[in-house]
Amino acid sequence: MANRAFYVTTPIYYVNDVPHLGTAYTTIVADALRRFEALRGRETFMLTGTDEHGLKIEREAISRGQSPKAFVDDISARFREAWQKLSIQPTQFIRTTDPEHERLVQELWKRVAANGDLYLGSYEDWYCVGCEGFKTEKELTQPANECPLHPGKPVEKVKEDTYFFRLEKYGPKLLAYYNDHPGFIQPESRRNEVVSFVSSGLKDLSVSRTSFTWGIPVPGDPKHVMYVWFDALANYWTALGGDGTPNEKKFWRDGQVIHLVGKDILRFHAIYWPAFLLSAGLPLPETIYAHGFLTIDGQKMGKSLRNAVDPVRLAETQELGGADGLRYQLLRAVAFGQDGDFDHAALIERYNADLGKNLGNLLSRTLGLAAKVPAEHWQTSADQAGALEDDLEKGTLEAIVSATRDWETFAPQRALEATFALCSQANVYIDRTAPWAAIKREDFARVVTILSRVFDVLETVSALLWPALPNKSNELRVQLGLAPLDGKGGWPDKATHRAWPRLPQGPALFPTIDKDGEKALLERLVPKPVPLPALAPTEAQTPPTTSISYDDFARVDLKVGVVKSAEKVPKKDKLLKLAVDLGEAEPRVIIAGLALTFAPESLVGRRVIVVANLAPRDFGKGLVSHGMLLATGPSEKLVLATAPDDAEPGDDEAAGAQAAASGPHVRRIGLHDGPRRRRRVRWVRDRRRRARVVDERRELHLRGLPCRDREVLRAGLLRRTGVAEIVLSRIDRQRHVPRDLAEFDAVEL
Hey, how many other C-beta atoms are within 10 angstroms of the C-beta on 53? Predict the structure, then answer.
């Protein structure tokens, strides 16, 4: 591994918007990994850049009154400038409008075509402009027919002539490759998602468009432009110069190739890209690592919430350590691969605790004590090492081993944790050895031994931190009288011992922030949502309400139903047609979106909870639904609200308001959640056993419902050890659009 070249890539970022904290996060991780490998003596190559073709770009440019080329030139330059300010040093910044990239993508297309994997046809399906990708009906959110990643922007029905790539042909080959290379997709949870998707069957992929022109022309058929993902994914290979070039051989064929991507684009990278490479006869990358999403102060990041964080502004905040302070927070606070939250208050807290009071204090106190030792005792005193020094050396070696392993396995947060654990150990070592007492009794040989060992630790820490904090690490080394690191070796493999000279006291490496300073920083840095202007009500317009009364909720008639039959609805991936006995003269027909979770035969005989007084809904083609089943969870993992086996069809035991009035078996329990004291009310009816009240936070998380920083109306009905529960909370005042309760749409399950 040490002799192989190291090639790490970020996604090339779509230029429909300026850099934000999410794009900065991926790029900082890639830069830190490259720096780590460079310190180990490996030849490295880091690639990032901008994705500049596609329908979304064309539309955005037109909306701004610019040509697509002028628009992408401007936004791409902002990305390049931002990365410089974040101390990110890619080997190459690629643009998909680069002539050399366009030429090599066309060569890749020809190789795929020569393998017989492209054919001309026509295509009709839903297209998400935000994703620049086609969506099947089961991937869309109903009833608005929206992509779940781009709410508020309905997908478009697209029908046009297109070239297809024979993706279906590569399904078995991909599954075999995943099986033979278990580390190809990481982390494991993401690998399982991809394997499950491919196992369900792939369809041939549309890889050209004729409805717009801003793209790379298809060789030999210029009325077609390449599908933006065929164009964009190829950048990882085209950036190295194409087949047979020295860089292509060194980094792509013989090197360790790592793609870092967000989890929302994993499918493109883990399915489409390896299939294209297999078709073209090219090697596959070694690892595709998908990380999670970032929220901002507990809220989803987005334009609609006006809470986007400008990473450049944070990097220019010198009170927080400049670019290194931001880099440290992103690398230390978020477990790479998982979702994470960027909290401004936590940024300041971690800066003070780790950088200021731990590392900064360690350097400052050691230099301060060193200044009290006469110069003639440095580099001449005999070493007086003992058990405490042995423990510190052991801790240093353990930190080096842990940090090396964690950087190698894409766990920067753990590598930094091990590094700062060593700083803490060094601070404890100073406390236990009490050099100030030795100074007082003029035992300068002992003082030099103690402080020299701490300087040894600081030298090691400066190298362990350099991938994450390159500027501050080199500032630390300057105060230690050491040469700055430049990425050409320098990673420690053991504890070092130097004969240190007396070092002068330098400026504070990380000045701590007091309460007043923290308050001022938060006021300056935390995005302030801009309230949308309120619309004045008119006679024809009723002002939207922000809550519903218990009496309104009580009008919802919930009954027990027994499923008598179930069948799939033709040409509808999600829908099942059910006949449900509610104790009425005839079973009711209910159309339910359960098909992605339940086989029709598995529902027959199930006792379910039905909204019995819901107005009929016409699905077209003679399909009319006369009720709604209660369930919760994502479409692929729904959990049905069910009733006990002895419940009779038509029983209203599960109805929330009716249960509240059903006598001594029902208890009303008021709970409060957190400092905002958001009230939730639960009605619990217990059959055969005493009602059990579980921890509300855990219960809501189990059902995928938010329990923090949101006030969204949630109603759910569970069967848990014989207990039927309903949880009701207030409406989210910012996002929820109230609907007619008679249609039951106001109650989100």
Answer: 26
